[in-house]
Amino acid sequence: MTDTVRLTTAQALVRWMVAQRSELLDGTVVPLFAGVFGIFGHGNVLGLGTALHEVADELPTWRGQNEQGMALAAVAHARATDRRQVMAATSSIGPGALNMVTAAGVAHANRLPVLLLAGDTFTGRGPDPVLQQVEHFGDPTATVNDAFRPVARWFDRITRPEQLLGTLPQVARVLTDPADAGPVVLALPQDVQVEEHDFPAALFEPRVHRVPRPRPDTAALAEAVDVLRTAERPLLVLGGGVRYSGAAAEVLALAERHDVPVVDTVAGRTLLPHTHRLYGGPLGIVGSTSANVLAEAADVVLAVGTRLQDFTTSSWTGFAHDVRLVHVNAARFDAVKRGAHAVVGDARATLTELDAALGDWQAAGGWAARAAEERGTWDEHVDRLRQGAAPHGLSYAQVVGVVNDASTPDDYVLGASGGIPGELHGGWRTGDVKHDAGPTSGATMDLEYGFSCMGYEIAGPWGAAMARRTTHPEGLVTSLFGDGSWMLLSSEIFSAAFSGHPFVAVLCDNDGYAVIHRLQTGQGAEGFNNLLSDARGPGADGSVRVDFAAHAAAMGCAVEDVPAGAGLEELRAAYLRARQTARDTSRPVVVVCRVHPGSWTEAGAWWETGVPASLSGRDAYVEGKDRQVRWLS
């Protein structure tokens, strides 16, 4: 007779989570679920809350302030562990659940695993309409949790306890699959959470989940070799899939043996040392002119583990119109994009086989040397931006340079929305990189530019600091963002302070949504509703502003307030003090600095945004569309 254990639905779910294990890149076995972020309400406090309390020592629960913020922290935790560990986030029904939808979008766009446990209304419908229930006139089965469906890789509403037996293996599959990784949403009606069932004891036996490394199809690989062998100017584009596969060393080996220049996307950043002779720089709209020049000149592009989003391809104007694409990706959905020759497989396994199959083939003489030449020109440009006098206050390039210069190989830098990701992607210089079997070293970067979610830069470092406390105890997380992100979602800075997870937050006060103001005025429109000075209200004259230093201090953080008009050395000293304070106090330190809203690092690429015929930017828009159409045809 099969052994059974009588548990509530919530208890069974939680005990299953405790039993799951994950294998890191170095073979170390760790818990698959590192913890839970939770805000309790009537929809989850007695069912799931009680079950979590029973296993608090094995599966820690961390209290958040905002459901979106704590779910974003869970997303960042997944990124910081190279998708090998997962955090869950739980909320009550109604507004609490809906607050997590944005975070699900971030996880979905960036292919990052997170488990969202959303409370739901009663399946029995006895008390309907229950508090926070949104009634649908034509569908009584619909709840607000159905809003998760477009942004979930796996969605299920558990209406009977025994349904867990079928759905939990799928939950584990999605969270650990390199092609399907993304958000899993389980809607948990509060009456079902506390319903008991005799679950088979085998469900709770420890299980190790190893991320599979599918090998490429033999014929597809051979065809890719044929395409590459005809190339005179091949270019290797690194995406986030290279990081998650642990394939940076294999990329470098292939590039060196065959003399192929390498550029990287925002998700693939910091995998190669900046000074390597084959590194051409960061690619795309917010990248570098060096990488973009190489991309335009390439006759074959070998893209590895990238979604090829518009910021990478310059809205599909960054490559020559007759370029041939070979795309290595674990997800066939991505591999076939834009008619590329698809090689579906794990990046590390595929590159090893591809390298061997290419034999002694090398790119044409002189092409490899061009990578260092072009990058050298870009470096000189960034040096001028970093070192030059800033007549109107600090520049973004200077802020990035200060953080870059102070960072160590074990550090971690994070950015998301606005102009900061461009400054980090285009201006950051990765030092020596050690490609051991563990999580990537070399001042690793997390640029959430898949969804470009404001507020990720404040909640995200909480999750990243939590993850890297174990893997990189000597390192420090630094997050860079603008005042707009702070105003949107500053609440989780208190969560990090309260829970004792230190990081440095560099708040660049540019007096508004400066990067959108740049887009607006750069196309010939008048500044409107982006900078505080061109928004409606008497405060536009400067009389109403936020004291960010006081606000940060009130949230439990230590603060370094760099005064207006301060220079580069004052910023450098403040950041170095902040690093030390974060280590000494085990809480976040906020560095507030005033940055000129119009001092940007430009890569010279085109990005498609709709431009009305009445604006001066219309001619450039039409020209860009013509180039795009030529490529697509």
UniProtKB/TrEMBL annotation:
Ranges of residues in domain Thiamine pyrophosphate enzyme central: 221-354
Pfam families named in the record: TPP_enzyme_C, TPP_enzyme_M, TPP_enzyme_N
Residues covered by the Thiamine pyrophosphate enzyme TPP-binding domain: 446-592
InterPro entries for the chain: DHS-like_NAD/FAD-binding_dom, Myo_inos_IolD, THDP-binding, Thiamin_PyroP_enz_cen_dom, Thiamin_PyroP_enz_TPP-bd_dom, TPP_enz, TPP_enzyme_TPP-bd
Gene3D superfamilies attached to this UniProt entry: 3.40.50.970, TPP-binding domain
UniProt keyword terms in alphabetical order: Hydrolase, Thiamine pyrophosphate
A GO BP annotation: isoleucine biosynthetic process
CC annotations in GO: acetolactate synthase complex
Source taxon at top rank: Bacteria
EC number: 3.7.1.-
GO molecular function terms listed in the Swiss-Prot or TrEMBL record: acetolactate synthase activity; flavin adenine dinucleotide binding; hydrolase activity, acting on acid carbon-carbon bonds, in ketonic substances; magnesium ion binding; thiamine pyrophosphate binding
Domain (Thiamine pyrophosphate enzyme N-terminal TPP-binding): residue spans on this chain: 36-125
Family to which the UniProt record says this protein belongs: Belongs to the TPP enzyme family.
Name under which the protein is recorded: Epi-inositol hydrolase
